[in-house]
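Lab meeting prep.
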Amino acid sequence: MVDAESLDNALIALVDKRIELNGLKYSDDSYDKVEEELHDMEDDFVDVYGKYLEKVLEDVHEKYCSNTEVLLPTAYVAKKYIQKNEQPGGKPVYEVSPQEGVWVDLDGKPGQEAHLVLVPSPARILLMIGTQAAKEVWRV
């Protein structure tokens, strides 16, 4: 079993680093350094939580999108998050657009645009279907 708080904190750190990188222009002197830090964080995240999250993702895929290949957990981390506010206790709350995450082929709904995305606070997987509201399909 995995420590839920540690997983969530590691995911928050990844998201915050992505937000930092997205805020930089490619020509910025610190862009390469921040990008390298992000890649190192992603590698560490997979080393520590990869096997656990791969099993979680296999279960989610089996239930909702069994014909779509399971990828590394970091593939499900959105490219762009928007920090909206904070929870009591100071943890950030994030939103993602419906097009973020990994595109999946929903069982019983061929051609329906859908994405799975990993979101922190608490660590969870959202199923984004078209432009509809997200459906939480797993929570740590």
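Slide two material, second protein:
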Amino acid sequence: MKHIKVLGSGCANCKRTLALIEEAAKAKGIEVALEKVEDIAGIMSYGVMSTPGVVIDGAVVHAGGVPDRQKIEAWLSA
């Protein structure tokens, strides 16, 4: 199971990123543990300066803007 955190203040892009990851995981039949991190200190602890940020299994894989579906599927397959 992949542990995925979406870092962001709760903006529309952050919510969209969370939904896209959830949809892609469900479509691929991959079990994920999704967590939304809205605490500024928590976000900054990953060194992410622009949101949404995505952290998979402790590693930052994305920061700033909504990732596209293909990128998300590549993260889930890795």
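Talking points for slide two:
The radius of gyration is 11 Å.
The CA atoms of residues 24 and 73 lie 6 Å apart.
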